Records
---
Amino acid sequence: MNVFLVFAHPEPKSFNAALRDRAVDVLRECGHAVVVSDLYEMKFKAVIDHDDFPDPLNPAMLQIPLEQEAAHARGTTAADIAAEQRKLIAADLVIFQFPLWLYGLPAILKGWCERVFSSGFAHETTPSGERRWFENGGLKGRRAMLSLTCAGAETAFQPDGRHGDMDRILWPIHNALRYAGFDVLPPVVSYAVLRGGELGRANALDRLEGRLRGIETDTPIPFHSLDEYDDAHRLKAGIAPRTPGQHRGPGYLSRTPSS
Amino acid sequence: MNVFLVFAHPEPKSFNAALRDRAVDVLRECGHAVVVSDLYEMKFKAVIDHDDFPDPLNPAMLQIPLEQEAAHARGTTAADIAAEQRKLIAADLVIFQFPLWLYGLPAILKGWCERVFSSGFAHETTPSGERRWFENGGLKGRRAMLSLTCAGAETAFQPDGRHGDMDRILWPIHNALRYAGFDVLPPVVSYAVLRGGELGRANALDRLEGRLRGIETDTPIPFHSLDEYDDAHRLKAGIAPRTPGQHRGPGYLSRTPSS
């Protein structure tokens, strides 16, 4: 497999960097090719703005989807974005390694997604009206997985936990990946990384390694398919909406955390 | 009231800018004082990195919460962050005006939250072990509200909609605001802003105005209180976890969108 690892932490000595290094080592040991984008090291531009479109279709007013689509069609996508898009095209699996900050992606990674998963590349409505999104998105046929750290304990991220259900917290991110066409694998979450001590961190590294060794046969998180929706973008009669974590089975709400 | 409006859109002619302007006009007409941070115009630094801590407690390794707390205690918080924190302290109500991008905050606004809602300021564990978070967070006594635009139709953001339930999409953002101490008011969502035409946009502006005219008596979204959790950070026996949108009542799943 070709694996593309997107890394977002400012500190080279961080535990996130240790997780990245373990992932790269294990994946290469398994015979996969690995490419890494270290967003902080690259000083990746985090913010979409007028500078992304030096030759705009509409100089009077920036409409981002319009300009992204025009740039994609004309081959004038900004060089730093186009380079990341080429890595995505070449990848079978994309791994995002990051710390969960305020229940979301670090800004540099959120901005990477906004700029790289552009309209025209990752999703679009074609001139004939066809929608390229979700399982028909620009990155279909590829798999994506989040690998994240958080300061809180696993108990606090249960459905009845103080920070709320981790599956629910990650749902908008997973849905954004699905929107771009990815099959989304269950995440690897390393909890309580600041308080777990050396043993806790060693266990977290081993858990990530274990997941990566079996990743070729991992089952993606189920999403509704396009044909389950009607023309008003609602589920057809008789189809109940999925909820985050539902795929974990009926014991989900009462599951016991592993740490 | 003192109102602080945080604005995140790169285009001065955008509909988000029109919503911002209407909000400012209405709030001032109602006798409130309004301060605006236009993050793009300010070129607000979106990314936490080593540059935020020029005189670090630990030069060998950046641990962000540690450095944020030390900077806060010593009064050395970066000037651009401290200025925003002063606006928050002075505010009774904070409004965030932004486009929903990939089911989340624009990167520049996510980064503003990461840098400004810092450890030591918005949340912390005191030396005596007291947790300042959620209803005991640094910004307690203040209210916050999201006002956002999205390209999709309201039908697509219902619980059975193609993009998923808007309450669920916004839940991590709302919980981050709650974590910092805010009472969180229900959001104002302007749907289908690109396709709604002039009438749709006029209606959206009027809806925002209507909400703002009644905002002093608005009821916040309910969250679990700190005393509902046990020492393992889980809800005490017999307390069922709240779900996003639950406060809308039992008709929630079958509600008919207004547009």
---
Amino acid sequence: MAKPLILVTNDDGITAPGLRALIRFMKEIGDVIVVAPNSPQSGMGHAITIDSTLYIEEETINREDGAIAEYSCSGTPADCVKLGLRELLDRKPDLCVSGINHGSNSSINVIYSGTMSAAIEAGIEGIPAIGFSLCDFSWNANFEPAKEAIQQIVRQALEHGIPKGVVLNVNIPKTKTASPKGIKICRQARANWKEKFDKRISPNGKEYYWLTGEFELLDNGEDTDEHALSKGFIAVVPTQFDLTAYHAIHRLNNWKLND
Amino acid sequence: MAKPLILVTNDDGITAPGLRALIRFMKEIGDVIVVAPNSPQSGMGHAITIDSTLYIEEETINREDGAIAEYSCSGTPADCVKLGLRELLDRKPDLCVSGINHGSNSSINVIYSGTMSAAIEAGIEGIPAIGFSLCDFSWNANFEPAKEAIQQIVRQALEHGIPKGVVLNVNIPKTKTASPKGIKICRQARANWKEKFDKRISPNGKEYYWLTGEFELLDNGEDTDEHALSKGFIAVVPTQFDLTAYHAIHRLNNWKLND
């Protein structure tokens, strides 16, 4: 049987250690083609490049990582997937994986996540897709303890297929050397960022702000991604891009909108 | 009773005619404060500014539109809402409205929409929020025919409240002068963009791409936003930011992830 074709992308950029680790993990499963941003794109959400030009460069960041071909793109993670599918790959890939992100994309972070936007873009195109994130922002984070679980999730996704309209958001707890305790299927925890804006004065006297904030968990459920992570488990949240709140349709139909 | 406090924002920028129309429509209902991007931010999805500074300017674009105060911000639509809530407003607003967008944000477009990202950001903060979009990309689009319906939706939202965890995505059909036929509560239609990349050569010989594409409706349902719009109705989709695909959890639990 032909090896599966796996499109690898991310939002931290083509040189990020998390991407390089994912390439190495995936080459043991399939043929890997990389299309990743040429600069960090964290927090880009599902941005796409409409009013600007896009550039692609063929790259050889590290041949030993084992990709068949690598391309960097000047656009967002969603642009990378679109360009990869339309311009760079000879056939539809069997899987798209995004990451491994340096930092969590659990709970409400999924909304802001460039990593997940790439996976969702592939999902919209009907390609099984998974975003992987390690809950460690360090550039020198250790991705090796997660290798076995990541490969297991990918193999299961290739074997069973991912339900239509669903992409997987996989968050991995930070561990020193031991593997995570296991894998749990979860729902997205309710949470919020309590932003604080750090107000400063520039050398030329102009006020400016830095966005900072603290994560606030608003959910005590034991079936959430945050709960699984807190107990040392990998959290897998099936994530959809039909955003309709079906439960609210009936209630809105009771509003007097057409009187 | 005190007038409601309404935060108005958008993604086309603080000078966009759609925003100016929304300010005029809202000042008849409440006290309006504007925090909007200082430049167009279409297609920004739910991007936020993490690795860069943010600037705010107090503005007087057109005093006659009737806002109490107006601020432009160097960031994304989601940044505008965060900054508005944390730094610029004295109290939590009773409502956040985003738009009126020049162009549709129906069906899958909601994923890429800066207009809706601002509304969703407010929704995450527990503020009733609505995104309005007119299916007309023209800068000179006529927003007046939608005035009555927009005000009716806003008044009903203020009266009933919007269900927790839900924001409204309102798309308005293009009409010459007549009002839309009515308002329908809908689900998000399944659809996709068939991208085409227009490949060109720069004056210095470098290849570059423009993202273009055609909208492809994949849904024949009569309960969708696209169907309502095609029949001349305003489409209201209750939209959620819990992205969990609950229906898929059981199926994923049958995978062999922990063997």
